[in-house]
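User: I'm new to structure prediction. If I give you an amino acid sequence, what do you actually give back? Let's try with this one:
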Amino acid sequence: MQTTPLVTVRNRLHVGQPLPFGVRDVDATLLLARGHVVETHEQLDALLARGALVDIEELQTAAERARHAPPELLPKLWREGLSRVGDALLHAPHYSFKAALEDATDPVMTLVERDPDLAIFQVLRSDGNPHVAYGVQRSMNTAITAFLVAQRLGWTADETGKAFKAALTANVAMLELQGELSRQRTPLTVSQQQALQSHPHRSAALLEAAGVADPDWLRAVAHHHEVEDGSGYPRGIAGTDVGDLASLVRRADIYTSKLSSRSHRDAMNADIAGRQMFMQDPGHPMTAALVKEFGVYPPGCQVRLASGAVGIVVQRGGSVTTPIVACLTSPGGITLTQPLRVDTSLPQYAVAAVVGERTIDAEATADKLMLLTLR
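Assistant: Good question. You get back a string of structure tokens that encode the predicted 3D arrangement of the chain. For your 375 residues, that looks like this:
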């Protein structure tokens, strides 16, 4: 273990706030664990005076750990990162919401940048996070999608980060209602319709009250259901007044909505969702970038090969129609003890169709499936 004196990182210590790392005695034994709250200045001064140490590895930020972690740790980091983002959203608004959101989103954006295939896998395999509320899961899927499409469009790092945060928080005022509507089989009530129509402005107001001051972020949230032809809501804004950031969030939201199941309908297969996006929004560069980024068979979707074997897409391939697939069954339908990775650009492994979740009886945890994308 490599250590450094606590005094060298004095600027990261704040009385009354959780420690961002563990504090160790001069012999490197743990004195105070990460998260412990130093209550007084006297306690902090005493730690500094006794020559307390810090493990250098613990000084990495969550984003730095995500950037440099061994590949086999990525599923765990994804799970932890999405959980932190979900906690921040579910507890909004509060006085420290903006800081909590920034801390939670930075490592997740790093994970998206590090491995886009694994990021797309999160969107398609959202069942891997069963304890996350429906509205929060939808927000995270939309944010990941907006981030990836912004990158493909060549947006700057600042613009891409704003796309992630705007998409993540666009529905923050109606997370509970989203979950309610996902289970509801009856038409919307008048109060539900009113809440739905007003949520863009309510979300923007909530963010502003919580300390978000970025005008682009707030404007994108307020306009994310406006459409360039003036048919959107709540104000029917048209043309360039909608804004590119809001337009991207809306398209990402529409696409991920198609991929999400509800009580009255199953999730749409990825190939059909992409085809519908093209048909409903022909020629728009954002839609073209979105469909190209995810492809016909994005990581996470289940497919049947020409041989009859069934598997899950784990990586994008040389073209949109030739992904890398981990076969979970033999051509005869027998569950394989170990998944078999195949390149579908080879004729004998060509993809025949996307299949539904119930087609495969093989049991595989989300972490095991994610690891398949890394080999």
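You can read the tokens as a compact description of the fold. Here is one thing that stands out. The chain has a mean pLDDT of 89.
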